[in-house]
Amino acid sequence: MVERILYVCASPRAERSVSAQIADVFLAALAERKAVEIDRLNPWEYELPEVDGALLAAKYAGLDDAPLSAAQAAAWQQISTLAERFHRADTLVFSTPLWNFGIPYKLKHLIDAISHKGVLFTFDEQGLNGMLGGRRAIAIYTRGLGYGPDSQTPDQVFGLEKPFFDTWLRFVGINHVHSVVVEHTLGPAGASIRASAIEAVTLLAQNIDQQAARTIIVGRSG
């Protein structure tokens, strides 16, 4: 059976991106042990739908069960087509650097474009229900500095990309999440830390079907 993977790379640096390099190793290691079909979504190259007046009008018309205009229907079809790539996947893989305490704005744009009722979640009198349940996610985060509790940039204050992303994944119904956090990628120790991260994701890929969801931190001191 082929495992369908959607891979979202949040860095615009292509092959120079450390997060993308580590994700590529993970995907290659996974492909060595099972049949996979990888759908690569680059939000820097994909023409993401604008979260503008037409899209928001379509959203609120849908909330009110009102008919959509032609412009609203076209805007809604754009996000439905994009979100279908998430629904088709068995596993979601993300790689993202830390930018200004959070995720790159193109990844945030992607999340904002597809996170709507009837697209990635539903809600009723029973509450919110994510529509991507049963899938798993692997999120690879890279940080140039260290974010240990004794550092000048402690994780709970400056490393806000992972809490945000964990919340979004739970919101859309994904509770099985493997996180790989790689710190100190800049500076003299960067090469050895990248090597350790590559080893860690290779082992994760080899054993992922037998492992409970967990967070792996590479390169943290203090």
Automatic annotation (TrEMBL):
Domain of life: Bacteria
Signal sequence, renumbered to the chain: none
GO molecular function: electron transfer activity; FMN binding; oxidoreductase activity, acting on NAD(P)H as acceptor; oxidoreductase activity, acting on NAD(P)H, quinone or similar compound as acceptor
Cofactor(s) recorded in Swiss-Prot or TrEMBL: FMN
Enzyme class label: oxidoreductase
Cited InterPro entries: Flavodoxin_fold (IPR003680), Flavoprotein-like_sf (IPR029039), FMN-dep_NADH:Q_OxRdtase_AzoR1 (IPR050104), NADH:quinone_OxRdtase_FMN_depd (IPR023048)
Binding site for FMN: 11, 17-19
Domain annotation Flavodoxin-like fold: ranges: 4-200
Record keywords: Flavoprotein, FMN, NAD, Oxidoreductase
EC numbers: 1.6.5.-, 1.7.1.17
Catalytic activity from the UniProt record: 2 a quinone + NADH + H(+) = 2 a 1,4-benzosemiquinone + NAD(+); N,N-dimethyl-1,4-phenylenediamine + anthranilate + 2 NAD(+) = 2-(4-dimethylaminophenyl)diazenylbenzoate + 2 NADH + 2 H(+)
Cofactor binding annotation: Binds 1 FMN per subunit.
Subunit organization: Homodimer.
Task of the protein: Quinone reductase that provides resistance to thiol-specific stress caused by electrophilic quinones. Also exhibits azoreductase activity. Catalyzes the reductive cleavage of the azo bond in aromatic azo compounds to the corresponding amines.
Listed PANTHER family: FMN-DEPENDENT NADH-AZOREDUCTASE 1, FMN-DEPENDENT NADH:QUINONE OXIDOREDUCTASE
Homology family: Belongs to the azoreductase type 1 family.
Identification of the protein by name: FMN dependent NADH:quinone oxidoreductase
Organism from which the protein derives: Pseudomonas putida
Highest classification ranks of the organism: Bacteria, Pseudomonadati, Pseudomonadota, Gammaproteobacteria, Pseudomonadales
Recorded name of the encoding gene: azoR
